Amino acid sequence: MSEELHTKSPERIEISDWLRMELSAVLNKVHDVQYSERFWGLIIEEYVKTAITRKQLLEGGNCDVNIPFLPVNSHNFPDSKTIWLEFAKNTVKAFLGRKSSARGMKLLEDQNQYRIGFPEFNGFEKFRAELGVELPEIHFQLIRPCNLFLRSKLNRIAEGIDDNFLKNSVKQLPKLYVEYFRSILNAIPLAEPEKKIFNVHNIRNFADVFILAKYTEHGAKLIWYQHGSHYGEYRWEYYHHYEHLMADEFRTWGWKISERDTPWKAYRLEAFKRLYREFDNRGEYNLMLCYPKMYSTYRKHCIDTTKFLEQNLDFKKFPEILARPRPMHKKHSHEKELSFISCENIDIGSGLEPIERQVSRSKIVVQISVPSTNFLECIYVDHPVTGILNNTEPTEVIKPYYSFLLDNGILHEDVQSLVRFLNNTNLESWWIEITGSDMYNQFKENFTGNVTAGK
Hints:
Blueprint: H1 10-31, H2 37-53, H3 55-58, H4 80-96, H5 98-110, E1 113-116, H6 128-131, E2 133-134, H7 150-159, H8 164-171, H9 181-187, E3 197-200, H10 206-217, E4 221-225, H11 238-246, E5 249-252, E6 261-263, H12 267-276, E7 287-290, H13 296-312, E8 321-324, E9 346-348, H14 355-360, E10 365-370, H15 373-380, E11 385-389, H16 399-407, E12 411-412, H17 415-424, H18 427-435, H19 438-447
Parallel strand pairs: 1-2, 1-3, 3-4, 4-5, 5-6, 7-8, 7-10, 8-9, 10-11, 11-12
Helix pairs in contact: 1-2, 1-7, 2-10, 7-8
């Protein structure tokens, strides 16, 4: 993916909206229907992201490769082994999840308000009334394509398109949206959709988006909830733009930018707090370095920042340091992501230990890049935190708070400023002063919405 199409750019928003519109029109023609762009936008978003990732490939000449059953988001076209592996995984999940699917289908008929993808934690039960019943995961097997001739129809439409990127994006539409589309849509019961409310925190699988698309197309209300940082901070945050576009209402962690935004509660941060309070092994590490995902966009920044820290941090003041890589999965260690760390004072974690426990074991957390969800988690529980601001296109609502955070050592514009601050500041008295200030507490209220606030 080219640099201008990363998820914080206006170009990413523009081309994604254009591609979504064009693919929606194509799919309406293929299936001889007139569904709204929102309907298709909910269903095909995973493929829109995939096509943007592969834009350079799709702009090329011939892209007549194997068509996947499901979207596989990678920089290269998936090979046959990968395609069939994804198919097999879905088949197994559908088989093992038969009871869950049956419960979910029945709830669609019996209930009117649902929650999807919310974090569960001790004490969450008091929020269930406002969010509705949890919709169990539903899985569909891809075993009975409705019409094998639809692919030929799709390809004929594609051949009439001049733009190579769009033409090949159409040709590569997964079978889920073409051959299997109608069988999946018809399997979803439609029961009094105008009475339904869907509260969405995270999408779990393709069944979720098919259900949301079918019900919202017939009058159901979709409320999407902020589920991480970046929202409300980056001016051109693509995922906020998309979720905001699809939803009837977007519930934030306290801020409001447009009429569709509703300041609400930060369920994810509350889940962090509940686990954080269970750990009492505090102070084992003088400092924890918290790293972002090692995308190419951030990798050089992370390496350069670390090298400067290794050479200039006062290790007499900070003799025990933990470096935490951002986990991308839950099974294997991520230690190799930080192989550029050479200082013997720094322990490299696997990324698999609960972050709540690692934060509680550290006297202060240093975010290598902010915005960061863990930065907001630390603020939510008033755990000492600082970091390097990496946002050149902030929203208007965050600007006054960034100014305060930068002026008071919570954020820094570069690693040089960060190291000077860490080496020369009495961190305990600094943090007491910070957490007692009005501006800090305003930031906390507007960007880490408190679940106890009674909103």
